[in-house]
Amino acid sequence: MKAMELTDLGPLFEALHGAGRTVVGPTVRDGAIVLAELSSADDLPHGWGVELEPGGYRLRRRSDRAAFAHSAGPQSWKPFLHRPRVKLWEADRTGDGFQIATDSPDPPRYAFLGVRPCDLRAIAIQDRVLMGGRHTDPSYAGRREGALIIAVNCTEPGETCFCVSMGTGPQAGPGYDIALTELLDDGDPRYIAEIGTEAGAAVLADLDAAAARPADVDRARAEVTAAAGRMGREMPAPDLRDLMAGSLGSARWDDVAQRCLTCGNCTMVCPTCFCTRVTDTTDLTGDHAERWQLWDSCFDPDYSLLHGGAVRSSAKSRYRQWLTHKLGTWHDQFGSSGCVGCGRCIVWCPVGIDITAEVDALQAEADSP
Amino acid sequence: MTPMTPVPYRVAARRADLADTVTLTLEPVAEPIAEPAPGQFTMMYAFGVGEVPISVSRTGPVLEQTVRSVGAVTRAVCATAPGRILGLRGPFGTGWELDAAKGRDLVLAAGGIGLAPLRPLVLAALADRDAYGRIAVLIGTRTPDDLLFAAELDEWRARGAQVEVTVDRPAPGWSGHVGLITGLVGAADIEPALAAAFVCGPEIMMRVTAQALIGRGLPAAHVRLSMERNMRCGLGWCGHCQLGPLLICRDGPVLPYERVLPLMTVREL
Question: CATH for B98-264?
Answer without folding.
Answer: 3.40.50.80
